[in-house]
Write a structure and sequence with these properties.
By secondary structure, the protein is mainly α.
Length: about 500
Amino acid sequence: MDNASRTKKTKTNIVVSILYQLIYTVIGLVLPRFILRTFGSDVNGIMRSIDQLLSCTMLLEGGIGGMVLASFYLPLASNDSRAVSDIFNNTKRFFNRISAVYAALVILFSVFATLIINTEYDPTFVGALVLILGLTYYFNYYLGVTHQLLLKADQKLYIVQLVLMVTLTLNAGISIGLMESGAGIHVVKLVSAFVFLLNPLIYRIYIKQHYDISKKLFDPNRRMPRKRDGVIHHVAYFIHRNTDVVILSIFRGVKEVSVYSIYYSVVVGLENFLTAVSNGLAGVIGNIIAKKENKLLTNSFEVYEMCNTFLTSFFCTAAAVLILPFVRIYTDGVTDAEYIRPSFAYLLIAAQWFYCIRIPYNNVINSAGHYGQTKPGAYMEAALNFFISLLTVHKFGLAGVAFGTMTAMLARTVYMAWYLSKNILKRNFRVFIRNSGIHIAVSVIIVFVMYQCYEVPSDSFMNWGINAAFVSIITIVCFAALSFILNRKTYISLFKEIKIRRNHHGRNEF
């Protein structure tokens, strides 16, 4: 793959990723609001708790997804169709096997859900919902995961996300229509399950038409990537995404889970946006590493890190100012739980900043296949998150689990930045410490000044949106100036590169 083709695919992936994330975030806020207002905090909390229980089945994967992704890079870069087919078919066989275990776990969860989830609803109601949501998860994940991994590795993430945009939009429209017509939550979610069945069907059709994958090129003796190296990374990611809700479900009840889910739906949108953009770059980074273009990797990473730090700081700072007024409007009319939790909101956003700031480090480490070398950081994160959250949930509730998550995110982010600086990019670790410290200080100052001098209205979404635009402009200007001051040499080099390319294109056209 030449540089022009690689650049074109990267641009397409990033543009589609941004569009996808906008649609995902909007739907992720609109649909739960209909569920909350139609069925109440209890049902909303039950569904969130079930989602987290079902996500436990991700541990069956054992982290092999990321390692398979890394395994695809070199065969794709060298056009080795036999190796691509071997990896694809072995991966598919692996996921077919664990899907049977998944089915058994879903049935087990449906039987014991009311013992795990603290709710007043009867076992039949909860058990049936577990089975239906389990079907949705199966259609949306296990049936198409191998196809998605191949497309992502081949820098065709845009195909995956275009399909998801269609099914997400279709599902939202149908679900809202069913709720407005008086359908129960079980009917709404059962219909959703079959809407998401479209995802794997479309992936399979595309793979069949564009790749030479057949059983004739399947080598049953090919060894899969070493799963043990990826298991702890997978466990750490699972704990990051699920520990808070699982602990709250057991010790605090589903109403607290409902409160958590509203705030989390906002901050996870920030994470998903940045992850989506990074996923658009994952394929090209893997391709660069596979071709051992070390200088290009270093230069590309500097720009990548600079942009990610800027966007993370901007989004999280603006969210810290805007999230409480937003939640007031979002939960207007819902009186069965207290939804305004300032300390929890700030701790959750801080945890998200530490997580998102490390996305470039995680991306490069995974693309380089350094799973075994970075296991200590994953062990540390998993232990800190679980035990601190468990110790603090009784006294501090939501704020306690958010503090546990923030502490774990901070520790592993520092570890990953140190590892990358020492072992892959060979740069001074102090650069990360300096830049992170300055961005945190500026963020705190902006939030403090905004709260002292400016009040965001919480009477309507329209007024909130207008004021959110003002807050965003102020915040983005501050961090843009800071980014230029800290990364002046990188900006100058980038501008020179853009100028050279424009002049080159201009001469070619002439």
